[in-house]
Amino acid sequence: MNSNGSLIEGIVIRAYGGYYYVFDGRQEWECLLRGRFRYENRQVLVGDRVYLKPRHGRAGVIEEVLPRRTVLVRPPVANVDQAVIVFAVKDPDPSPRLLDRFLVVVHMNKIEPLICFNKVDLAESGRIELISRYRERYRVVATSARSGEGLSLLRESLRGRVSVFAGPSGVGKSTILNAILPGLNLKTGEISAKLKRGRHTTRHVELVALPEGGLVADTPGFSSLDLPDLKPEELAGCFPEIEAYQEGCYFAGCLHYREPRCAVKEAVGKGLIEESRYRQYVEFVEELMDRRRY
Q: Where along the chain is GTP bound (predicted)?
């Protein structure tokens, strides 16, 4: 409860049909919004920490929304501590380009990434190398919902945090959560043999309480992702290996694109920065520059 003892603090774990379901750490409340929220056209998101006023039974009214630490637009979740970015090593094949887009979005939203490579029981040697490359720069866990490999490490990584699961369709987000939380019974989808991508199975964002502590969201899969609204010169900060070398550039504000005497391009030439990651960085720079022209 808050200082005046009449309101209860909790977190919005799901919302639909005009109702907001708030978990206070012990029990769940079915809440409506105070009328002024609708008048002010203020949106309440899953993940928002709120004060509610109890009514009869387990019903309540949301009186106040506390300031947000982080906000994701797609999926719409507030106050996320980490994003579990799930990609399959096969079926569907992973797209480093799309994974890098996820990492840029997560970085710009000040959320810590955890890359989860799923279906490692199907892994081939080339895919193992892909996992190793990302592990050099990011926290990575390799899992198989089928065999159970890596799930205990993933559970530990979720402990005490608000985590969002994100990634393309068909990579196994819901399957992983079903394995971690037996009885959850989230719907899962088969991979389309024709399109080679999964069907969308999750219809709304919901936070689920974990036995070990922490909350996790299973969110709709999607296969395309726009870069956030950032300046081209901000992009290097989203690539740890590029950020590490940019202080050595001759020109202040170097984009590591076409400028001479660039320490980043020199590092690429020496093999200190992976060329494919640098090419992806350049593609994103050009995309951001094109966006600014219009």
A: 118-121, 167-175
